[in-house]
Amino acid sequence: MITVNTKHNTAPENIDFNRTPCFWIYDSPEYKEYSMHWHNAVEILMPTENIFPVVCGDKEYILKETDILIIPPGELHNLKAQHGRRIIMLCDNAMFKDNPALAEVCRIFSQPVWINENYSRGFVSELNEAVMEMVRIFDSSPLFCETLLYEKLIEILMKIAKYDKSTENKFNEKAEQIKRYIDTFYMNDITLDSLSEAAGYSKFHMSRFFKKNNTSFTDMLNARRIKEAEIMLRNDNTSVTQIAMNVGFSSITTFNRAFRKFKDCTPTQFRGMYREENE
Length: 279
Known about the structure:
The protein has nine helices and eleven strands. β1 and β2 form a beta hairpin. 47% of the residues lie in helices and 20% in strands.
């Protein structure tokens, strides 16, 4: 059984299953809002006509036609009222829980998964067809209906898990390429656009790279510039202003601000402390 709970933990609402005890699939044309709630089911949403706004936690997703959003069990979410059609699918989580054979697949339930234009068109089409096949199975109620639905659902989750793993491997290769590019051209006027073009990566994936490294494009670039500036401040008498220009900063003000952020002192103070220590 799948139960739906409101945000404030009132009595659960039982979903009326008329075909299978563990699946509820609805091709919905309704202009209806589902207020903030959570349930013990995996929820899959796919608009087929018009957009579909969904709020999960504190993030809003504007799903376009053929986008897919997978909402993990226990995730607070709100489905907004919207003209159009969308597939709404609830799948009991009992099959996945505590099943070691599905551990790799279930890792994608750690947060909502949004399949959109940032994935390859062919991959999205495959998932769209798999979702529609589940709708057809559910509507026709063939022999072993529930088994066929679970089989198709696992197929969808496996495709996503494999795609993400493949993307992660490519991501790691690109990460090294990005670091080498910044390491080589830090003194130039590098922008996120130029870095994306050089790495052959979209801005979306570039953002993922910096987020995964707990930094930003600006901080990673400035960290490399400050590292080089430290060497110059220690080893020669070039003016602070000239060093700022040499390592890629466009103004002494920006250089001083960045240096203080990373070293907790100004370039001039850094040079003075170094010389005092080595006298």
